[in-house]
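Follow-up to my earlier ticket, as requested here are the two runs.
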Amino acid sequence: MADTPSNEPRLAPVAPSSRPVSEALLNDKWDRAISSAVIRGSLGLSFGVVFSVLLFKRRRWPALVGLGFGLGRAYEEANVSFKNGPTRSGTNGMRLVRS
């Protein structure tokens, strides 16, 4: 009875859905850029708030300057990452120095 055809339609095998390599690289770069912006922006804001409380009589501009420095640094790193070719060397953001 196992060899008799049933009334259920047969499904054709489907190739595994995978993204192209270029899309995966771009997504990795965007993930790294966004996480870097959040981390560096919050660190800059934190340092700005600390300096604002300790040195500048609780003014707002040191916190905003710290936030700007953090976001600017993250933007520059993302810009370099997007302009360079695809790298998946596993360096985790570490810069390789060739001698």
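Run two:
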Amino acid sequence: MSNLTTKLTPLQLHVAFWDYNNDSIITPAEIYHGFRDLGFCILFSLGGLLINLFFSYPTTLGHSWLPDPLFRIHTSSIHKAKHGSDSGVYSSDGNLRLMLFDEMFDRMDSSVADNTSTIKTDKREGSLGVGDLFRLHAKNRVAADPAGWSFAAMEWWTTWLLLQRDGRIWEKDLRAMYDGTLFWKIRDERKRNEDMTRGYGWQDWVGGLWNNGTWKTWEVRNERKVNIEVEREL
């Protein structure tokens, strides 16, 4: 991927992970295998084929008025698949608006309520919880755009499942996801069988409800850590 970074926009880099043979085309099979490499289950990865269903034609418009019968996505015109009611972090030509990215955390990060200042420093990394994401989605919804509302909801849901740590999406991870570098990192970590500290799967949901009566497994884990520290102090 390193040879391509100087030629692609951030949005193109964001989707380059799924372009397995670097031909600027993402097939339904590549979408499926990409989600599997990121750790998603078979059912979720099959659901990812909706990406090709909805975004193939917008990207094909950069090359032809006729729809692609194979539902392929053309990464060279991926900016044409940009939809309404999104975060606005990507511009219409696929570049990152870093000021809007920072503003998203400044305005939506509920954890700042516990601090005396809402200004981030080098010692504090912004994060977004589930409630923050609901508020962000509601803020970005524009009138008469049910398709955009749905796409944005699916994108944030997928992002939280992939990135959450302690129930929150952290600023550094989300920034790396926007430019695509995090996808390669997660795949390499999984290949090396490293202990993954981010993400949320059906095992977490079922195990949390079965063993602890809550799907918020991070709260149980953090409570146990606190209890262990208290016991050590005693």
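The only thing I checked on run two: Residues 146-163 form the longest helix (18 residues). Let me know what else you need.
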